[in-house]
Amino acid sequence: MNKQIKTILAMTFISMLAITSAGCGQTQNQSLEQSETQVNQQENSTNQFSPKYEADTEYKLSVVGTYSNFESLESTIDRFYEHYPNGEIEYTYLDDYRNTIGPALAGQEPPDIYVVQPWMYGDEQFASLFDGAEILSDPELEINLDCIRSSVKWEMDDGEILTLPVFATSYGMLVNMDIFETEGLEVPNTFEELKDVCQQLKEAGYESPLMGANTTTTPGIGYAFSYPMFAKTVKDDRSIEEGLNNLEPSAGEAMRPSLERLQDLVDSGCIDVAKCSAEIEDDYNSVILRFFEGDVPMMLCSGDVVSGTKKREGQSEAFSANPFNYDFYVAPSGDEGGYYMDSVSILFCVNKNSVNLDMTNEFIRFLTSEKELGLMAAEKRLITPTTDYSLDEVYASLADFPEARTVNFRDTELLDTAVKQYRAAAYAIVNGEMTVDEAVANYGSIPTE
Amino acid sequence: MKKRYIVIINILIVGLILFIIVKYANDRAVESNQSSIASFEKMTTTTEQIVANYLEDEQHLCDIWANYINGSAEAGTPMTVDEAISYIRKAKISPEISGHLIYIDDGSMAGISTNARSTDPSDYSVNYSHINIFENLEISNVDGAVNLTRAYTNPLNGVQSIAFLNNIKVLDSETEEMRDALIIRVVPVSRLEQKLVFLKGEYENVEISLIDWDGDYMIHGKSLKNSNFFEYFKSYNPMSAQEYNQVVETIRTDIGSMHIHNSKDEDCVIAYTPLSGLDSWFLVAYIPAYELTLNRSIDWLILGIVVAGLLILLHFNLMILLNFNRKLTVAAEAANQANEAKSYFLSTMSHDIRTPMNAIIGMNEMILRDSHDDEILMYSENIRAAGNTLLGIINDILDFSKIEAGKMEIINVDYNCASLLNDIVNMVQRKADEKNLIFKLDVDPNIPRCLHGDEIRIKQVITNILSNAVKYTKEGGVTFSINSTKCEDNPDYVMLHVSVEDTGIGIKKEDLDKLFAAFERIDEKKNRNIEGTGLGMAIAQSFLDMMGSSIQVESEYGRGSVFSFDLKQKVVKWEPLGEFDSAYKSFLKEREQYKVRFVAPDARILVVDDNEINLKVFGNLLRETKIQIDTAESGDACLTLFKRNFYDVIFLDHMMPDKDGIETIKEMKECTDTPNAKTPVICLTANAVSGMREMYINAGFDDYLTKPIDTSRLENMLCTYISSDLIKQVDREPEQKYKILLVDEDIQFLRKLMELLSNKYEVAVSKSTAQATAYLKSHEADLIIMDDKLDNLAEGEPDKIIRDSFKEKSETEITSLIDDFFAKVADKERREHE
C-alpha cells in the first residue's frame, strides 16, 4: 500500500472519529470539561486542603443562621462538595433566631453548625450556644486557626476557642475613587485632611462631600464617624467602662472628645445633614443606592452596608450606566488618622452533639483557611477575619492598619445599653438636638427611641 | 476518473452514511431527550398531586380540630384554651406534629402548645409575635381552604415547619370571655420531604422545591441557592428585566419546563407547576440536564458495528480499487506501448519515405529547372506528378494521425476566394482531362472575393471530394458548384454552399456508412485499380467537423453521387468574385512564375544531413540564391564547423547515425566556445508526424522544415532568419504587356477602345488596312483587332487576327474576347514551358 493510500486511510479514520465524536453529542464534551474543571479545581484545592476522610463519605449537615440569604456560604459548600460529593450541607435561616436557636439546639433536628455573635456571650439565654460548642482549638481537629487575625480570634478565658469568626465588620465610609481621581485628590487620613478635601470638593460642586444615613443605628452618620474614636477612648481607659455600662451620668464625659469631633464635622460643612435626611431614607438600601448615583465622594456606613453593594451594582441604573471604582476607608476622625473598629460580624459554632460531628469538623477545617474565609467574605463583601485582605480590594485600605489606632471587639466590653446611649447622643449632636455638653451631662438618660 | 477522486468519493459516501447515522442517532437522542423532559414534567405533575393531596390532608386534619373546638362553642359548651389544647394533644397521633393555639384578637400572637419547649419541658407557652409568617394571610378568616404558611422555625423546638391554620373560638378561663384564636397544625418540613423520597429511585439528582408567590422557598432544593428561587434564577441567568418578568410569569401561571443555569453555570432543567387547590404555591423540580440526556436511547453498539462495517467496506473497496488500478495501469502501459509503436512506425515511415522522396523530388526539380529537352521535361513532369501523388498519400496518413491525436488545428486567415478556386480547378481539371471527363464549373459571381477561414483545409476538403469524384467517374463529368448566401443572423458572414456532382459509379445505401470511415474503401474489389488510402473522405469530414460543418451525400448506385456541404465563412471584402472565368484568367495573369526571390551572397549557412544526396538537393535548390552553403554529414562534423565558423542559419537533420540531431543540438546549446551562440538552428527532417514540431521546438530548435523540401517554404524561412542586411531582393523584369493593334476606320471608336484597353495592353491604332500593314512591318503585335469590313491584312499571323463587327459589341464583350484570347495564349505558353 503506497503512502498516499495510507494517508487517505488515516484521514478517513480521523474524519470518522471526528464525525462520530461530534455526533456523540455535547453531553460527553460537557462531562469532560466538567471533569477537567473539577480536576483543576481539585488540584488547586488539594494544595491547601487535604481531606481526612474517604471522598465517598456520606453525610448530611445543617447550618443555621441569621442571614435569610447566605449565598457565600453556599458557594463554599459547593467547593466542599468537590472533596466530598456524596453529602449535603443545608443552610437554614431561623426565624426569630434570638429565640429559636436555643430550642433548635435542644430540639429534634439540632443544627450541626450555628451562628453566634459576640453580644450573645454572657447572656444566659444563649449559654447553651457556647456550652454546646465544640472546642475548635482542639489540636486533634487540625483546624488551622492561625490564619485568623488575632484581633478577631476569640479565645475564652481558658484559652479555648469555641467559635470561628466568619465575617468581620467595621465602621467607616465608602469612597468614590473616580471622583478623587478626577479631582486630583487623595483620600484623607486625618480630620484636618478631611476638612481640606471636603472644602475642595465643595468648590468643585459637591454640595455635601460626605453623606450618610441620618439614623441612630450603627450605620448612621454619628455612629459610623465617631464611635470608633469613642471606643478608642474606652480602650485607652478601661476604668471608665464600668460607669458607662452602669449608665452613670458622670461616665458621660468619656463621650466628649468623640462627640466634639462629630460636632466639628457637622460645623465644618463637610456634611449636609438635611440633604442626607432628604435623600437617604434608610440605613442600608438607600445608602448604597444613593452612593451609586455617583455624585457622593464619601458615604459614611458600616461594613454590613458595604456587604450589600455587590448585589446592588446591578440594581442601580445609575451605577450600571456609569460604573465607578469605590473602596472602604476608615473615617478620618482623629488628628493622627481614623480608628479601625475591627469587629466580628458573625461566628460559627460547631454543635458538639452533632450526629455528624466528624464531617462537621471536617467542614470547619476546610472553611478555616485564608482562601475559603477570604472568598466567602469577598462574595459577601464583608471584611475577612483572616490576615489576608487581598481577596477583596474594597477593603484593601485596612491591610497593615496601625495597631495603635485599631480597636477590636475584645478591647472593650461596653454593654448594648451604653452603646445605645452613645448612638442617641451622636444622633442628637448631628441633628443639633443637643450640644456636646448636654449630651455628656445627660448620659444614661438620653432617649434612645 | 483519477484514483484519488474515487477514494475521496468513497470517503465522502462513507462519511455521508456515518453523518446520516449520527444525525439519525442524534435526532433520536433529541427525541429521547424531549421524551425525558416530558417524563420529567409528568413526574413533576405527579409529585404536585402527591404534595397537594398531602397538604390537603394535613389541612383537613387541622380543620377537624377546628371544627371540633368550634362545634363545642356552637353547642354552647365552648372549650377553654387548656381543654382545646388537651383535645388536640389527644387527637394528634404523630409526636413530631404539634398544635399551637394562639390568640389573635388582641394581636399578641401568643398562646399555648401541645408540646413543651425543647429547652424547658414545663414551658408550653408559644409566641409568634417575632415570626413573620402571617403577613400574607387573612388570619381572621382562614376557613374553607388549605391555609399554610411558608416554612418557618417552630419557636418551641427550632424545627423548620409549615403551619396549617384555622380559626377557632375558645373560652378565656380567666375572663370567661370567648376569644378569637388560631389553631395551628405545625408539621415539620421533613415530613413533607419524606413524601418525595420515592423520586430518588427514578431521578437520582432531582430536587423538589416548593415556593410561594414571591419565590421564597417552603422546601429548598440543595442546588437552588439563595432563599428565594426567583432571585437565585436571576443571579445565574442574566437577562433583561422584561425577560425575567416573563419567566416569573410563566412559572406562576403555566405547567412546563425550561433550561436554566445553576450557580456553577451548568445546564439544568426545571419543571414547574402550581400546587392545585392551594393559592400561590408552586412546585419546582430541578434536575441537572445531563441526567435527562444521559437517558438517551441510542444503541451505540449498533452504531459502532455500522461504523466498523463501513470502515471494512471502505478498506475492501480500496483494495479492489487498487487491484483494478494495477490492471488498468498494465493495460494503459500496453496501450501506450502500442501507441508509441504506432507513432514510431509513422515516424519511421514518414522519415524513410520522405528522405528518398526529397532526393527524387529535389533532383527532379533540378531537371525541370535546368533541362531544355522537351522529352526530358515531359518525363520529369511525370516524375513530379507521381511524386506529388505519393506525397499526397503520405500527407493524408500524417494528417489523419494528427487528427486522431487531436493535434490538428484550424488556422483561419484572410484568403482570396478566386485563388482558392483556381488552385482547386487547376488540380482537378488536369485529372479530369486525363480521364476525358467534362469538368463543369458553376461558380456564383456574387461570392465575396475575400473571406476569412482556413484556406488550406477548405481547399483540401473540396479537392478530396473532387478527386474522389474524378477517381470514381469513368465517363460523363463532374460538376463543381459553389454559391453563397448571406447569413441573416450574422451579417458579417456568408454561408458557402459547395456541391460536387458526378456521373460516377454511385454508392450503395448500405455502403454510405463506410464512406467516412478511415481506411475503408467502398467496393474494394471493384475499385482495386483506383489509387487511394481510404482516408480522403474521412479527413475531409474531420476537417469539416472542426469547422462546424459536415458532408451530405446523395447517391444512386450506378448513376452518380452528389456530395455537398455548407460552410460559414467570415467576409473580409464584400466585393463580388464576378465571373469566375475572367477572374480565373485574371488571376492566372497576376500569378507570378517561380523565380528566385532573393540573393544573399554574403550569407553563410550550414546544412547537416547524413544523406549526401539530400545535401546536394539542398544546395541545388538554393543555388540561385548564391548563399554560401557548408555541409556536414554527421553531428560531430556539424559541431566542429559550429565551433569554427559563423553561420547565419543552421539546418540540422534529426535522424542521423551515431549522434542524432537532438543530441547534437543539445551539445550545441551547451557549447560556449562558438561564434554561433545566437544562430538559429532549424530542424530539417523527414519526420513529419503529428507532434513533431512541438517536440523539436522543445528540444531547442528554432524552427522545423520537412522533407521533401518545399522551395518556397525554404526561401521564406531563410528570409526570416537571415539578417535583412544580407538579403538583396532580385528585381523582377517589368511586366511585358501584350501588344494590340486596333484597325478601324472610325477614329472615335478607336479612341474609345484605346482608352478602354490601354491600361492593360500596349495599344496601337490604325485607321486603315494599309496603315496597319505598314505598322506591322516595323512592329510586332500579339493581337490584331480588325473591323470585318476592312480588307485583309497582308502582314501578321492569321491566328493573331480577330475580325468582327466590334462596333456592335459592348465594351465588356470586347474586353472579354480579348482576355479570353490572351488567356489561351498564356495557357499555351505555360504548357509549353512546363
TrEMBL record, chain A:
Region of interest called Disordered, as start-end residue ranges on this chain: 30-51
Transport listed as a keyword: yes
Keywords: Signal, Sugar transport, Transport
Range of residues in the leader sequence: 1-24
InterPro entries per record: Bact_solute-bd_prot1 (IPR050490), SBP (IPR006059)
Bias (Polar residues): 30-50
Protein name per Swiss-Prot or TrEMBL: Multiple sugar transport system substrate-binding protein
Lineage of the organism: Bacteria, Bacillati, Bacillota, Clostridia, Lachnospirales
Automatic annotation (TrEMBL), chain B:
Start and end residues of each Histidine kinase domain: 348-571
Membrane-spanning intervals of the chain: 7-25, 300-322
Transferase found in the keyword field: yes
Top-level EC class as recorded in UniProt: transferase
UniProt KW keywords: Kinase, Membrane, Phosphoprotein, Transferase, Transmembrane, Transmembrane helix, Two-component regulatory system
Listed InterPro entries: CheY-like_superfamily, HATPase_C_sf, HATPase_dom, His_kinase_dom, HisK_dim/P_dom, HisK_dim/P_sf, Sig_transdc_His_kin-like_C, Sig_transdc_resp-reg_receiver
Recorded catalytic activity of this chain's protein: ATP + protein L-histidine = ADP + protein N-phospho-L-histidine
Domain Response regulatory: 604-722, 739-834
Molecular function in Gene Ontology: phosphorelay sensor kinase activity
Modified residues annotated as 4-aspartylphosphate in this record: D653, D787
Family: In the N-terminal section; belongs to the phytochrome family.
Function noted in UniProt: May play the central regulatory role in sporulation. It may be an element of the effector pathway responsible for the activation of sporulation genes in response to nutritional stress. Spo0A may act in concert with spo0H (a sigma factor) to control the expression of some genes that are critical to the sporulation process.
Protein name: Circadian input-output histidine kinase CikA
Source organism per UniProt: Pseudobutyrivibrio ruminis DSM 9787
Lineage: Bacteria, Bacillati, Bacillota, Clostridia, Lachnospirales
